[in-house]
Amino acid sequence: MNRSELISRILVYAGVVLVIGAPLVFWARTPLIHARMPEYGGWSPNIIHANVGEPLHLKLTSDDVVHGFAVGQMDMQSVDILPGKVTDITLKFDKPGIYTFYCTRWCGLNHWRMRGTIEVSGSPSDSEPASPPLYVSLNLDIDAPHDAPVVPAQKPSAIRGQGLIPNSPFLQSFDYYRSNSPYQAFLDLSNTSLTEPQRWDVVAFIWRSNTLSESLANGKQLYAQNCAACHGENGAGDGVFADDLTTAGESSMQTMEGAMDMIMQSPVDFTDPQRMLGASPALLQGKILRGGMGTGMPMWGSIFTEEQIWDLIAYIYSFQFEYQN
Q1: What's the rounded Cα separation, in Å, for the pair 22 and 14?
Q2: pTM above the 0.70 mark?
Q3: Rounded Cα–Cα distance for residues 245 and 119 (Å)
Q4: How many other C-beta atoms can be found within 10 angstroms of the C-beta atom of residue 303?
Q5: Least confident of 5-9, 72-76, 114-118
Q6: How far apart (Å, rounded) are the C-alpha atoms in residues 49 and 116?
Q7: Tens of pLDDT along 154-202?
Q8: Ramachandran assignment for 41, one of left (phi > 0), alpha (psi -120 to 50 degrees), beta (any other)
């Protein structure tokens, strides 16, 4: 073997080693994130670090049941994490900040506690500082009672209300819709010649005309993925975890001094007109962003985008109003 042939063979061998070995080394250095039901540890590790503009490679595996992985306020499809298998995923962040990752599968009663954070470092964003949410701007006390003193005898219909809308532009404005409850709109229509059932139908039309069909569809999907297990598929507060939440709340009441409020862990019934017709979209925004104090309702502010929250709110009102024939 002459010198040139030897060098060629060495280069070929080196290339093969590089092609095969480098990915293996890289794969071995990528952290393996374990997913367990929250009662047994949740995510481990639950804090991950990344840099703006650099790919973040993750390997995920489940130690018990099927979990899901997604990052809040990020345009991505969730991925399933199967027991005993490894799922690879690569993320990239455009802005520094703290992002929340969470389980997207209903893995147990405390599923919503299964969250972790990705701390992304980098140059400060040039974007405008975020404005306060509407419920803060309106100075709403989202924990104060807000029941509607009057409710309709039948489900209001946007179709029936469409032809009855009075010539009051403010009633159809976006700001009015988000800042006022359906009951307030009902009151504001009291100086018209409409009957009470007709006024409720007009309210239904106002609520429907301030959202799009696409938004309702998106809200429905978000509700099914994140809310239905507690609040029920039809919004009646009878999801698959509802009884367990009530039992957990009653148990806490019996064992914890001063924990009377824990009994409120029963999921809210979105089909209750007294409760829902007295709630403005802004108030519901606060409930979703912050969560319900002492109720077991988690905070979703780090998960949903603002647009997603408004879509979800629009869909929740569909449990009160008839939008189609």
Answers
A1: 11
A2: yes
A3: 32
A4: 24
A5: 5-9
A6: 11
A7: 999 999 999 898 777 767 789 999 999 999 999 999 989 999 999 999 9
A8: left
Tokens 């009663």 belong to residue: 109
Q: Which residue has the tokens 């080394």?
A: 25
Alpha carbons 238 and 228: distance in angstroms, whole number: 9
Q: What are phi and psi of 72, to 5 degrees?
A: -65, 150
What gap in Å lies between CA 271 and CA 231, rounded to an integer? 10
Q: How far is 284 from 193, CA to CA, in rounded Å?
A: 31
Between these two residues, 297 and 12, which has the higher pLDDT value?
297
pLDDT tens profile 89-105: 999 999 999 999 999 99
Integer Cα distance of 9 and 96 in angstroms: 47
pLDDT reading at 212 higher than 90: yes
Res. 311: pLDDT tops 90: yes
Reported confidence tier of residue 14, pLDDT bands at 50, 70, 90: low
Query: Dihedral of CA 171/172/173/174: which sign?
Result: positive
Per-residue model confidence (pLDDT) at position 131: 87
